[in-house]
Write a structure and sequence with these properties.
Structural class: alpha+beta
Number of domains: 1
Largest sheet: 3 strands, antiparallel
Radius of gyration: 13 Å
Order of helices and strands: EEEEEHHH
CATH superfamily: YlxR-like
Strand order of the largest sheet: 4-3-5
CATH architecture: 2-Layer Sandwich
Number of strands: 5
Distance between the termini: 38 Å
Shape: globular
């Protein structure tokens, strides 16, 4: 039986390489909106974050997502990220 390859992605805050399923993807759509992509397949420029509150807070404080997505990320996105873990 063939072993399936596990897709690995890098968290933009911690720089850790983790399996794609352990990360959350935040996407800047072609229209310029910033959304949380739970399917991992949305169109646009994406950045991955580890599923931890500390990582979300650090991303907000250091404006990592703003740099990676090349757009101002609204606070509502960070609120939605925190609500995902609750």
């Amino acid at each position: 039986m063939k072993i399936r390859k596990i897709p690995m992605r890098t968290c933009v805050v911690t720089r850790e390489k983790l399996p794609k399923k352990e990360l959350i993807r935040v996407v800047r759509t072609p229209e310029g909106n910033v959304i949380i992509d739970e399917t991992g397949k949305a169109n646009g420029r994406g950045a991955y974050l580890k599923k931890e509150k500390e990582v979300f807070l650090k991303a907000k404080k250091n404006k990592v997502l703003n740099r990676m997505l090349e757009v101002e990320v609204p606070d509502k996105v960070f609120d939605d990220l925190n609500n995902l873990l609750d």
